[in-house]
Amino acid sequence: MREGVVEIFQNAYSELRPGTSLPELKIDFYAFANVNNTIRLRNGRLLVRLSDLLEGAPENVLRAIAHILLAKMYRKPVDRAHAARYRRYVGSHEIVRKAHLVRQMRGRKILRPARGHVFDLDAVFEELNMRFFHGLMARPRMSWSQTRTRRILGHFDPAHNAIIISRIFDHPAMPRYVLEYIVYHEMLHLKHPVRLRGSRRCVHSAEFQAEERLFPRAGEAEAFLKRM
Ligand SMILES: [Zn+2]
């Protein structure tokens, strides 16, 4: 079984600093356009950001990056074998190509205007922002999907900082609260970035789901979506 990423960091920490206890650790995967990994200590917590390109990396590569980041953090010498292993992985043909592809894709994504035939997504966002988030959320690019897809009703794309909503909701017969419920869900993705518990991606965390239930007509909207 695959060792969890948090455990990998814990082990790397005990190797570097035996006898001391590991600070609270928070690890997130971020969509960096380049392979980029960061670590910092903030209020006694270690905050680690890993490029999402490393999400599928083999365990020994994750062990290497954990060692390198922690060694830098605590000004310890970086073990050569770990450094070499990491460089080999990042430099390998596959990941170079993948990074290139991701950059290309991120650069080229086509976004549509927020104003549809019936609904203006910017206006929907701002209204929900006031109602649920004290107006504090920075608005990402809001876009209708290119096609009238039923497979993906909405998604938040962190690489482009964009929320894309299926065009099927831009229809006069669509109740506004159903569209709002979809947009609200995607706004919660903005608020709760994907976090790791062990090696498992936790896309809809307990906090996420609790907050989703604060939408007053959530049950009604769910029922409507099921009938659609
Ligand atoms: Zn979701």
Oligomeric state, counting identical vs distinct chains: single chain
- Please tally the helical runs, counting DSSP H or I stretches of 4 or more residues: 8
Model regions low in confidence, pLDDT < 50 over at least 5 residues: none
The shape, in one word, is: elongated
Write down the Rg: 21 Å
**Helix/strand structural class:** alpha/beta
Main β sheet profile: 3 strands, mixed
Order of SSEs: HEEEHHHHEEEHEEHH
Helix content: 40-55%
- Classify the beta-strand content into a percent band: 15-25%
Protein model, in words:
With 228 residues, the chain is of the alpha/beta class. It is built from 8 helices and 8 strands; from the N terminus they run H-E-E-E-H-H-H-H-E-E-E-H-E-E-H-H. It has helices at residues 5-16, 59-73, 80-91, 93-108, 121-133, 176-191, 206-212, 218-227, and strands at 24-30, 38-42, 45-51, 141-144, 154-157, 162-165, 195-197, 200-202. It is elongated, with a radius of gyration of 21 Å. 21% of the residues are buried. The mean pLDDT is 86. The structure holds zinc ion (ZN).
Characterize this entry briefly.
This protein is α/β, with parallel strands linked by helices and 228 residues long. 44% of the residues lie in helices and 16% in strands.
Which secondary structure elements does this structure contain, and how are they paired or packed?
Blueprint: H1 5-16, E1 24-30, E2 38-42, E3 45-51, H2 59-73, H3 80-91, H4 93-108, H5 121-133, E4 141-144, E5 154-157, E6 162-165, H6 176-191, E7 195-197, E8 200-202, H7 206-212, H8 218-227
The structure holds zinc ion.
